[in-house]
Amino acid sequence: MASPMRPVTAVAPWPVDEQRLVDRLAMTLVSAAGFALFVPAIVLFVLGVLLVPLGVLGVGFALAHVVVPLVEVVTRAHRGLGGLVLGETVPAGYLRTRGGFFGPPLGWLRDPHRWRDLGYLAYSATGGFVMSGVPVVLLVALPVHLILAVVLGGTAAVVLVLSGLLCLPLWWILTPPLVRARALVERSMLGYSVADLESRVERVEETRTDALDTTAAEIRRIERDLHDGAQARIAAVGMNVGLAEKLLTSDPAAAAELLREARETTLGALEDLRSVVRGIHPPALADRGLAGAIEALAVPIPLPVTVAVDVPTLPEPVESAAYFAVAECLTNTVKHSGASRAWVRGSHDGRRLRLVAGDDGRGGADPTASGLAGVARRLAAFDGTMTVDSPAGGPTVVTMEVPCPTT
């Protein structure tokens, strides 16, 4: 039995055999699908061009919420067809957008991949339409010509039969290069470009460096806390116990006092160690998950904090990064905002964790300040993002998103 269609690079014109016939029929079906997408392509291209001028009138924003997702559906279909032909995945490279009514259209306007989608629709409705149509037309030409020859008869029938038979070898020879050429255009226009990949590599290098710097800073902080806290207290315990041992026979009362101080110092050292452990991975996070840990985090805050976090169990590194990010936001609220209330909302759509921390304070939060910049670096290590909306007079809203598929 013949195997499924191979990548077009593996298809040669000769010899004529069953597998090559199956390959060309499969490629013709792919061409027919691209050919049929001509209609939505030209309609969506016209609507897409109109979005910008209509946006000035306000109508374009509402229309964009319909047109752009449909464009994405059509181009995703073309990516699938191109990937099927080339034997590879053609990935999309869309930028993330903010929520709300105006956020997505404004984000789409700045996304070069959305503009490339629009340019591809123009190609799909012109050159791509022709390239996909040729294999389909050549294949159906023979039966159509034969039917017309029977109907017309005479000299016209001979001409129609000969022209129909000529279409068959043309279909055999032209189909692979035409199908591959269109697939290469789809990969070039709809996939990642070299510049995209270089930018992505640079971004990965930056986030890796930030992650290493953050980890090194955390290690130094832990060493400092242990040295200045628990280690100093434990050393004091050793000294007190040694002195008590010497005074045990000569001055039992002084020895007892030293032992009492050693016990108290030991309790303080244990508390220091617990504080260090909480700074590494809070027990509430391990026991109650991210939602419960954030609720526990909000309890000692000296102002009302509304917590509405509904997320599944996530990988521990992501939960830890999200927890400390929210902790930093709430700390900033208490120290700098002058707010009367704060809130934390969290959700997960199956692919991405989204946390929003806000307050009704005076606003003016600086995203480049050390605290928020540290949050951004912590999230960037997981390819996450942070946006700060804090106009003068408030409110302040910090939105944090981290890619984290649960399946």
- Binned, the helix content reads 55-70%
Gross morphology: elongated
Overall number of domains: 3
Share of residues in strands: 5-15%
Distance between the termini: 36 Å
> What is the number of helices?
12
The largest beta-sheet arranges its strands as 1-2-3-5-4
Describe the structure.
- The protein is of the alpha+beta class and 407 residues long.
- The protein folds into 3 domains: 8-192, no CATH class; 203-280, Single alpha-helices involved in coiled-coils or other helix-helix interfaces (Up-down Bundle); 283-403, Heat Shock Protein 90 (2-Layer Sandwich).
- The chain has 12 helices and 5 strands.
- Strands 1-2-3-5-4 form a 5-stranded mixed β-sheet, with helices on one face.
- Helix 2 (38-56) packs antiparallel against helix 3 (59-86), helix 3 crosses helix 5 and helix 8 packs across helix 12.
- The protein is elongated and about 135 Å long.
- The two termini are 36 Å apart.
- The mean pLDDT is 81.
Offer a quick outline of the entry.
By secondary structure, this protein is an alpha+beta fold.
Write out key terms for the chains shown.
single chain, 407 residues, Single alpha-helices involved in coiled-coils or other helix-helix interfaces, Heat Shock Protein 90, 3 domains, 12 helices, 5 strands, elongated
